[in-house]
UniProtKB/TrEMBL annotation:
Gene3D superfamilies: Copper homeostasis (CutC) domain. GO terms for molecular function: copper ion binding. Belongs to the CutC family. The gene is LOC106116606. This is Copper homeostasis protein cutC homolog. InterPro entries: CutC-like (IPR005627), CutC-like_dom_sf (IPR036822).
Length: 269
């Protein structure tokens, strides 16, 4: 399966047309993904009533084919940027309120992670797991900065997370060191929690993750487009003149490689 992270309606539409199995819905992907706006989530859910030979959204110029299906909708819960993942009680209260709201909608999963001194923050994670119940929760790439991955994953499993998103504690999940860690995590824990590689995953390397035993991968399948900033005035802290969006052709190509690799593995076995 392929989970595609998106932070706009355009990207969500493209991901669905490309055949994504799941959408991780965020805002601010350049920040690593923050809690999305209710408006974005509601618009995405509106188009999930997928019918044969009808556009999935009013702006679509192509028609849905019979092989397009409803992807699962996973909601990022992260109230601010910063890669420390150490939250105050006020920030946790904010995120618990976000969970309370999104539980009223037809969503499939939450995505969350919290740390304390580079270890799993068991207290705050347990609060989130309890608040999300019965909706499952993924522990995100906060895992990748934990000091001891073996201790961290044991705590994550014990707390009740059902999936781990990780780059194998490297910048890119296809780094040889990352692949080595992913293999170890799969070998020890694949019957206890789903291991989902993410960061640098693309159509060229996705087969490597399937061959080591991963059942789902995570990718943005993105392209960039240039924007013109009037008189060079930039808002906030961003200085880039590019924005990113999910490309349906990249999604489709990645999904095709996934399916082909699975079929090849089945024949070999």
């Amino acid at each position: 399966m392929l989970e595609v992270c998106i932070d706009s309606l355009e990207s969500a539409i493209n991901a669905v047309h490309g055949g994504a199995d799941e959408l991780e819905v965020c805002s601010s992907l350049p920040e690593g993904g923050l809690t999305p706006s209710p408006g974005l989530v509601k618009e995405i859910l509106k188009m999930m009533d997928i019918s044969f030979n009808k556009p999935i959204y009013k702006s679509c110029t192509e028609f849905c084919c019979k092989n397009i299906k409803r992807p699962k909708i996973n909601i990022m819960i992260r109230c601010r940027g910063g890669s420390d993942f150490c939250y105050t009680s006020e920030e946790i209260d904010t995120m618990l309120s976000d969970i309370e709201y999104y539980k009223t909608l037809n969503i499939d999963r939450f995505v969350f992670g919290a740390l304390k001194a580079l270890e799993i923050d068991e207290e705050y994670c347990q609060k989130v797991i309890n608040a999300a119940n019965p909706i499952p929760v993924t522990f995100h790439r906060a895992f990748d900065i934990c000091l001891n991955p073996n201790i961290a994953i044991e705590k994550i499993i014990k707390l009740g997370f059902t999936r781990l998103l990780t780059s194998g504690q490297e910048i890119s999940a296809d780094d040889p060191k990352a692949i080595n860690l992913l293999q170890k995590l799969l070998c020890i824990n694949k019957c206890r929690i789903e291991i989902m590689p993410g960061a640098g995953v693309n159509a060229d390397n996705v087969k490597d993750f399937i061959k080591i035993g991963c059942k789902i991968v995570h990718s943005s399948c993105k392209r960039s487009k240039e924007i013109n900033i009037g008189n060079n005035l930039s808002m906030g802290t961003a200085t880039t003149q590019y924005i990113y969006y999910t490309d349906k052709n990249i999604v489709r190509r990645t999904k095709e490689v996934l399916c082909r690799t699975v079929n090849e593995n089945a024949k070999d076995s």
